[in-house]
Amino acid sequence: MKYILLIFALLFTSCSTKNYEITKTKIITIKSPKIKFSDVGYVRSSKNKIELELFIAGKSIQTFTLNHVICTNSGCMSKGAFNEEYLNKNYPLDILQNIILSQPIYGGKNIQKKDGGFEQVIAESGVEITYRVDLNGVYFKDKKNSIIFQIKDLNER
Description:
Layout: H1 2-16, E1 22-31, E2 36-45, E3 50-56, E4 59-66, E5 70-72, E6 75-77, H2 79-86, H3 95-100, E7 111-114, E8 117-124, E9 127-134, E10 137-142, E11 147-153
Antiparallel strand pairs: 1-2, 1-11, 2-3, 3-4, 4-5, 5-6, 7-8, 8-9, 9-10, 10-11
């Protein structure tokens, strides 16, 4: 019983502790089967954790906290379960954190370096992705699954 309480406490605190080194205000657009959003958000990060907080009319409507699990306002789940519920089950486990942090996806597959960033085009079973990172922000589109994820600096609107 003691171990169950310890595990439960660790899971809860992994989603609730908020010590971030970087906070950036962004314009965030997300279109997926479960999320439709386009407005201001905060991207916060530290060495071990990332948080994406979405706002509409100045009110926080959803928070995603990523570390070894992904936590939403509804609770925490594995990265695979999150992808299946919110994005696409064919995606790699780290895809959301890589998009938020402007890092290559799919282990850098098909990466083409561009001025100020890179582009990846990934077409394989279940996905048809165009992913660009440049000085203006991040653009992710999976044409096959109708998923769009865009992050721009607030002054680039």
